[in-house]
Design goal:
Elements lengths: L21 H22 L1 H10 L20 H6 L15 E5 L7 E5 L1 H17 L7 E4 L7 H13 L2 E3 L6 H11 L3 E4 L1 H13 L11 E5 L5 H11 L2 E8 L4 E7 L7 E3 L4 E6 L7 E2 L5 E7 L10 E7 L1 E2 L9 E2 L4 E2 L4 E3 L2 E3 L1 H8 L5 E10 L6 E8 L5 H18 L5 E5 L14 E3 L5
Parallel strand pairs: 3-4, 3-5, 5-6, 6-7, 19-22, 20-21
Antiparallel strand pairs: 1-2, 7-8, 8-9, 9-15, 10-11, 10-12, 12-13, 13-16, 14-15, 17-18, 19-20
The structure holds 5'-O-[hydroxy(phenylacetyl)phosphoryl]adenosine (DLL).
Catalytic activity: 2-phenylacetate + ATP + CoA = phenylacetyl-CoA + AMP + diphosphate
Protein name: Phenylacetate-coenzyme A ligase
EC number: 6.2.1.30
């Protein structure tokens, strides 16, 4: 039998909910919200306590705006009830557990019934399809497998779409490169900074990242900018799309971006009701287009229904485009708990990324260190020069960066332009902020 390399285009229909109108989605949301609130109230003691204390009852949910009457859920609630206190089903109905380590405090533990896993895979598959991944493609999954939702979440999504999954997990960068060269995947799933790490390592090994088989990257788990998208698309000659999610709400696949519009991730609003609240006054729910903190309520989750969960992610809601019934989220500019307050000026790492990548000679590899030598906070930006940038030019680029940060952010900082390869690389979420203020 002769083998043919011709690829057959497999059918790839959309889920019916993906094409619902805004009105249809909102009416579905209302009934699902009523059910979820009653379900959580009946099954999770913490929700009952909170609602009773706030004087609200699930029957108060009459129209969508009534959601604002219900109390928020915080990461702290999951920690207080560690490990399984917020689960709404008996343990034998929990098909899987994940946990997020977080940087401080106890892990938060999340659970899924078989139905939850099925919905998660379905939404993940929607995201991959929207990003241009096709059934029959080979997909290299470099999100970390294990308690982190990235690896297994993206894996199930790729399987559901009908791709051939390569479950590489994160790390072992040399091996990642070998697998990419030998298995010739069409798409890669990983964090944006890890794709950068892989690209750098390829270049150092004399391999041109533009010549790999990769066509698409679906990137998430950490904030990234349009400038970083451009950097990665040029570096690999690929399309790079966003995928968003968080373990407390589900995992990767809460929202995903279209490769045709590249204008932010569509939230699957048949399963989640998003809200934006004022980051400084949580009692104010903001309208579409206004920047604030993203809050999610699950509409179908069984093991861990989550009501008005404060993500601390800062963004805004925009009308749907590629999937008109589902709203998009703008880029996440940062997390409220990642915000550096420097002598009264608010600063996010993504602002530095945006500014640095517009300056020739500077790479996307940087770290921010905050110290307080006297009574004043000081910010130092350590950033690698690009390989082709000489030390003289690097000095000028550093001065330019300081000047641009002063103009756009409003604070002065010390810049240290360092040699390529001298800063730590990530194989997952990259830590950019080193706050030494309380460590001195
Ligand atoms: O990071 C889930 C995930 C895995 C998403 C793989 C996408 C791809 P957690 O570890 O619980 O879950 O971290 C959730 O990561 O609240 C955001 O602050 C950040 N985050 C996730 N996706 C994005 C994104 C996973 N596309 C936290 N853009 C969230 C910006 C993101 N930040």
């Amino acid at each position: 039998m002769t083998q043919t390399s011709t690829r057959i285009e497999l059918p790839n229909p959309l889920d019916p909910e993906e094409t619902m109108s805004r009105d249809e989605i909102e009416s579905l949301q209302l009934t699902r919200l009523q059910d979820t609130l009653a379900y959580a109230y009946d099954r999770v003691p913490l929700y009952k306590e909170k609602y009773d204390a706030a004087g609200v009852h699930p029957s108060d949910m009459v129209e969508l705006a009534d959601l604002a009457k219900f109390p928020f859920t915080e990461k702290e609630d999951l920690r207080k009830t560690y490990p399984f206190g917020m689960f709404a089903v008996p343990q034998h109905e929990v098909a899987r557990i994940h946990a997020s380590s977080g940087t401080t405090g106890r892990a938060t533990v999340v659970g899924y019934t078989q139905q939850d896993l099925d919905d998660w895979a379905k939404m993940g598959a929607r995201c991959l399809r929207l990003a241009g991944v096709k059934p029959g493609w080979k997909v290299h999954n470099a999100y970390g497998y294990g308690l982190f939702t990235g690896g297994l979440g993206a894996h199930a999504a790729a399987e559901r779409l009908g791709t051939t999954v390569i479950p590489m997990s994160g790390g072992q960068t040399e091996k990642q490169i070998t697998m990419i060269q030998d298995f010739e995947p069409d798409a890669i799933l990983c964090t944006p900074t890890y794709l950068l790490t892989i690209g750098d390592a390829m270049q150092r090994a004399g391999i041109d990242p533009r010549k790999t088989s990769l066509k698409t990257a679906v990137l998430g788990a950490e904030p990234w900018t349009e400038e970083m998208r451009h950097e990665l698309e040029v570096m690999f000659n690929i399309d790079a799309c966003d995928i968003y999610g968080l373990s407390e709400v589900m995992g990767p696949g809460v929202a995903g971006e279209s490769n045709e519009t590249k204008d932010g991730s569509h939230i699957w609003e048949d399963h989640f009701r998003p809200e934006i609240i004022d980051a400084f006054d949580e009692t104010k729910v903001l309208g579409d287009g206004q920047h604030g903190e993203l809050v999610f309520t699950s509409l179908t989750k069984q093991a861990l229904p989550i009501i008005r969960y404060r993500t601390h992610d800062l963004t805004r809601l925009l009308p749907g485009t590629a999937r008109p019934g589902h709203r998009r989220m703008g880029r996440i500019t940062g997390r409220s708990d990642d915000m550096i307050i420097l002598r009264g000026v608010n600063l996010f790492p993504s602002q530095i990324e945006e500014i640095a990548l517009r300056i020739a000679g500077l790479s996307p590899h940087f770290q921010l260190e905050i110290t307080r030598p006297g009574r004043m906070d000081q910010l130092a930006v350590r950033i690698e020069r690009r390989e082709d940038c000489t030390s003289d030019r690097a000095e000028a680029a550093g001065k330019e960066l300081a000047a641009q940060i002063k103009i756009h952010v409003g604070s002065s900082c010390a810049i240290d332009v360092v040699d390529p390869g001298s800063l730590a690389r990530s194989s997952g979420k990259l830590r950019r902020i080193y706050d030494m203020r309380n460590k001195e």
